[in-house]
Structures are given as C-alpha cells and as structure tokens.
C-alpha cells in the first residue's frame, strides 16, 4: 500500500512538475513579450523626448524672432512718426517758400511793369532826340546851302559884270579845251581851295577835308558844273542834281580874292571843285550817319525809319558804288534762300554733299572720337551731331561727359538741343540707336537743316 501511495504521489508530483514547467514557460513568454513592450515604450519615450527638445528649440527661435519683429515694428513706428514730422516740416517750409515766391513774382511783375513804362519813356525821349538831331542837321544843311548859293550868286554876278555871260556852246568848248590842254589854272586854284577844311556837321565825328580839284576829271567837272549851275541854259548839261540836303561849304572858304581878277575858266574850276567837294562830303556824311544809326542801341524802329528817310537823300544813287544791288546779286540771294547748300558748294567746290561733308569736318575739328567721312556710319553713335551742335549751343550739350557707348543719350541730347531752337527732328531715335549704318539721305537732310538754321 505504501508503494502505491508513493507511486501515486510521484505521479502527482510529476504532473505538478509538468504543470509548473508549463507555467514557467508561459511566464518566460510573457516576460519576453513584456520586455519587447518595454523596449518599444522606451523607444517611444526617447522619440518623444527628442521631439520635445526640437519643439523647445523651435519655441526659443520663435520667441527670439518675435522679439526681433516686435523691436523692428516699434522702430518702424518711430521712424514713421519721424517721417511724418519731417514731412509736415517740409510741407510748411514749402508753403512758406511758395508764398515767398509768389510775393517775389508779384514784385518782379510790378518791377517789370515799371521798367516797361520807363523803357517806353526812354524810347519816346530817344525818338524825340533823334528827331531833334535830324531837324538840327537839316537846318544846318539848309543854312550852309543857302550861304553857298549866296556866295556863288555873288561870284557869278561879279564875273558877269566884267565879262558877258557864257553860253552853252562856249562852256562846252571851254571844257573840251580844258580837258586837252594842261590844267595850269586849275593847279593854281587848288592850293587855296583845298586847304580850307569843311565845317563839322552834327552827325560827323571829325572835321572833314575836301579833296583837291585835280582829283576831279574833266568829264566829272562837266557833269557837276551842269548840275550845280542855276541858270536855265545850263540845266540840260547835268543829269544829276544834288538835293537840298547835301552838305556844302561856305563860299568865302572857296572864293578867296577878287572874282573879277580871275578868268572865267578859273571860276568854272572853282565851281567844279565846289561841286566835287559837295558830292564827296555828302557821301561821307551819309556813311557816318548810317554808322551812328547802327550804333544807337535804344533807338526804336520808328526812329530808325526816320533816320534812314533823312539819310536817303544825302547819297547820290548814281555815283555811290554800294547804292544799288545788281540783278545778278539779287538772283544769287534768292537762289541761296531756296537752296542753302549752293553757296556752300561754291565755297568748297565739288558737289553739295561733299561741300556739306567738308563743312561738318571743319566744324568738328578738335573734338575727340569724331571722324566724319560719310553721312552714314560716321553718325551712328550720335557724337557727331553733339559736336556740330555743341559749336553753336554749348550750354545744351555737355560734350566732355559723352561717350560713344551711350548712343541713346547722345541722340536725345542732340535732338533736344536742336528742337530747343526750332529745328524739327526728322530722324527716329530708335532706328539710329539700333542701326550701324543709318540712311545717309535722312542724315544729310537733318544736317542740312542744322546748317540752314545757323549759317544762312
């Protein structure tokens, strides 16, 4: 019985051992599973800690950025307030300056009106002075002419009292004989008459001396004596009768000594010499009067017209070499107005194109980076236009600052400078900038317009 019980206990114990071993295995499996879970949880914790550190770092960065942005915003607000204050100050200063400029403009306008009134008064006073000078001049000429006529009338009466009055035929014969024979009598009269200076006229700057009688040819004596003679039979000998405004000299300076003791030929030479002096002095006085007229800066157009009208009778149109313009000169002037390059072609020779090219080369001498050989590629950078216009308008073109690379600036400056004086631009600035060889006819047309404006 004991054995069976022991065997039964042993069998129970074995079963218990098997059960315990199973439980141990189960516990080991559970422990391994728990260890895996713990490992996973530890990894998750590490990841969460890393994320926490990253988030903390980002939070710090965001805090720092927030502080910086807030500081910038506060600085911007302060700058904006300062700018507003400065703008208000500038606005107030501008308003004060505008008021000052308006006040100065009003004062300048009032001053301009005052100066305009003074200018009108000066012009009217100048006109009155010019008229007075002309009237005084005319009165002096009339007095001198009356004195000369009176003296010549006395000389003629004294000569007619001793000898009978000569006729037209006898005078012509005496002129012919005087032109053929030696002028001995005329030479004897010359020293006394030529030494007498002319009286000073109101418009002449210096006293004028008379030319000697030997400088007058017999033909001139014939025409002058015929024009100065007051007798009707002698009026047909001369076609040129001097006007009453010719500058004359008193007869007592010319007719010295007794008129009765001189032969008629000597008296005729004296009268001829007197006429020659009258014409010579009238020419010189006319020229001096024109110079005085051109020198007066404040004279108005009406005073100039009055002076020119007064000086017109003082010159003999048929005897003055510059009194009239020949038809050839008039036609040439008309041609030059129509075609301004015609005169340039005559000056330089060759065709009009080559003449204009030579003119451009001459105008741009001494300018750097300028080589004008044609009307196409030599003008593609705009410097040639600037150089030509700089010779006339230096204030519009800063040539020393220009370069060949800045084409658009060069063309813009040149075209604006030309348009400022009324020269219309016929070239397209975009085409000129992007074209290496522009159309030579268009360039030549524009250069011709520049030449026509400044040179004709």
Automatic annotation (TrEMBL):
<feature type="compositionally biased region" description="Low complexity">
    <location>
        <begin position="299"/>
        <end position="324"/>
    </location>
</feature>
<dbReference type="InterPro" id="IPR001715">
    <property type="entry name" value="CH_dom"/>
</dbReference>
<protein>
    <recommendedName>
        <fullName>Cytospin-A</fullName>
    </recommendedName>
</protein>
<feature type="region of interest" description="Disordered">
    <location>
        <begin position="255"/>
        <end position="340"/>
    </location>
</feature>
<keyword id="KW-0965">Cell junction</keyword>
<feature type="region of interest" description="Disordered">
    <location>
        <begin position="175"/>
        <end position="242"/>
    </location>
</feature>
<comment type="similarity">
    <text>Belongs to the cytospin-A family.</text>
</comment>
<feature type="compositionally biased region" description="Polar residues">
    <location>
        <begin position="268"/>
        <end position="283"/>
    </location>
</feature>
<feature type="region of interest" description="Disordered">
    <location>
        <begin position="109"/>
        <end position="128"/>
    </location>
</feature>
<comment type="subunit">
    <text>May interact with both microtubules and actin cytoskeleton.</text>
</comment>
<dbReference type="GO" id="GO:0005737">
    <property type="term" value="C:cytoplasm"/>
</dbReference>
<feature type="compositionally biased region" description="Polar residues">
    <location>
        <begin position="176"/>
        <end position="193"/>
    </location>
</feature>
<dbReference type="GO" id="GO:0005921">
    <property type="term" value="C:gap junction"/>
</dbReference>
<feature type="domain" description="Calponin-homology (CH)">
    <location>
        <begin position="350"/>
        <end position="455"/>
    </location>
</feature>
<dbReference type="Pfam" id="PF00307">
    <property type="entry name" value="CH"/>
</dbReference>
<dbReference type="InterPro" id="IPR036872">
    <property type="entry name" value="CH_dom_sf"/>
</dbReference>
<feature type="compositionally biased region" description="Pro residues">
    <location>
        <begin position="199"/>
        <end position="210"/>
    </location>
</feature>
<dbReference type="InterPro" id="IPR050540">
    <property type="entry name" value="F-actin_Monoox_Mical"/>
</dbReference>
<dbReference type="GO" id="GO:0051301">
    <property type="term" value="P:cell division"/>
</dbReference>
<comment type="function">
    <text>Involved in cytokinesis and spindle organization. May play a role in actin cytoskeleton organization and microtubule stabilization and hence required for proper cell adhesion and migration.</text>
</comment>
<dbReference type="GO" id="GO:0005819">
    <property type="term" value="C:spindle"/>
</dbReference>
<keyword id="KW-0303">Gap junction</keyword>
<keyword id="KW-0175">Coiled coil</keyword>
<keyword id="KW-0963">Cytoplasm</keyword>
<feature type="compositionally biased region" description="Basic and acidic residues">
    <location>
        <begin position="284"/>
        <end position="294"/>
    </location>
</feature>
<keyword id="KW-0132">Cell division</keyword>
<keyword id="KW-0206">Cytoskeleton</keyword>
<keyword id="KW-0131">Cell cycle</keyword>
């Amino acid at each position: 019985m004991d054995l069976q019980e022991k065997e039964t206990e042993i069998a129970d114990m074995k079963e218990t051992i098997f059960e315990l071993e199973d439980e141990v295995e189960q516990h080991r499996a559970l422990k391994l599973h728990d260890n895996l879970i713990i490992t996973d949880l530890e990894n998750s914790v590490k990841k969460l800690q890393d994320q926490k550190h990253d988030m903390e770092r980002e939070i710090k960065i965001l805090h720092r950025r927030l502080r910086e942005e807030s500081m910038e915003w506060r600085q911007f607000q302060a700058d904006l307030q300062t700018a507003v204050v400065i703008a208000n100050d500038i606005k107030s200063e501008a308003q004060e300056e505008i008021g000052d400029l308006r006040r100065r403009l009003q004062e300048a306008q009032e001053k301009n009106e005052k100066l305009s009134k003074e200018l009108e008064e000066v012009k009217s006073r100048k006109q009155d002075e010019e008229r007075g000078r002309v009237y005084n001049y005319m009165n002096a000429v009339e007095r001198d002419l009356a004195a000369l006529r009176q003296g010549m009338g006395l000389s003629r009466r004294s000569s007619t009292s001793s000898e009978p009055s000569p006729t037209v035929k006898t005078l012509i014969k005496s002129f012919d004989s005087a032109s053929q024979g030696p002028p001995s009598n005329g030479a004897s009269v010359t020293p006394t008459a030529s030494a007498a200076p002319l009286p000073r006229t109101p418009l002449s700057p210096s006293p004028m001396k008379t030319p000697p009688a030997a400088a007058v040819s017999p033909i001139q004596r014939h025409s002058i004596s015929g024009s100065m003679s007051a007798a009707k039979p002698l009026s047909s000998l001369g076609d040129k009768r001097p006007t009453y405004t010719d500058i004359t000299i008193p007869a007592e300076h010319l007719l010295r000594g007794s008129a009765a003791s001189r032969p008629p030929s000597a008296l005729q030479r004296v009268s001829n010499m007197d006429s020659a002096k009258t014409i010579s002095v009238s020419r010189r006085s006319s020229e001096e009067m024109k110079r005085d007229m051109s020198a007066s800066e404040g004279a108005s157009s009406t005073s100039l017209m009055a002076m020119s009208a007064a000086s017109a009778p003082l010159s003999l149109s048929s005897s003055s070499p510059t009194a009239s313009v020949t038809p050839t000169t008039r036609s040439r002037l008309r041609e030059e107005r129509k075609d301004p390059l015609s005169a340039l072609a005559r000056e330089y020779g060759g065709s009009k194109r080559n003449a204009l090219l030579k003119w451009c080369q001459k105008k741009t001498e001494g300018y750097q980076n300028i080589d004008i050989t044609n009307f196409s590629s030599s003008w593609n950078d705009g410097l040639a236009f600037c150089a030509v216009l700089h010779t006339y308008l230096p204030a519009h073109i800063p040539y020393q600052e220009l370069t060949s690379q800045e084409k658009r600036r060069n063309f813009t400056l040149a075209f604006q400078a030309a348009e400022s004086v009324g020269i219309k631009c016929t070239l397209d600035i975009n085409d000129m900038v992007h074209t290496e060889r522009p159309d030579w006819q268009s360039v030549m047309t524009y250069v011709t317009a520049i030449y026509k404006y400044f040179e004709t």
